[in-house]
Amino acid sequence: MSKASGHTAGSRRVFFRYAGHAGDVVTLHGSFNGWSDAYRQFHAERGNDGHFVCLCVLRPGRYEYKYQVNGQWVLDETNPSVVANPFGSLNNLLEVPAAAKDSGKSEH
After folding, report:
1. Average pLDDT of span 93-104
2. Which residues contact 93 (CB under 8 A, 6 or more apart)?
3. For the chain, which domains are there?
4. Which of 6, 42, 55, 84 is least enclosed, having the fewest CB within 10 Å?
């Protein structure tokens, strides 16, 4: 996960990043969409060298999420915030802050 920045109606743009291998298929799933299958597919960054990025627009709040890489559930290793899920494993935890009145931008 990278950063959140201001967006319309109190929502925030949140960039998720994954470092893997060229050719990986990476998708994002979470409580922000009811864990829908293939909610968002990551796109390879420049050069398709295994670095992927996904942009979501989320309202301020607390969300659980996880990546799926080539069909396997994977934690976001850049985010140490985790919570136990009902399946006996962990999910990442994301806190999307409300927009700051003076800047409209915040780092995660």
Report:
1. 73
2. 62, 63, 64, 79, 81, 82, 83
3. 3-102 (2.60.40.10)
4. 84
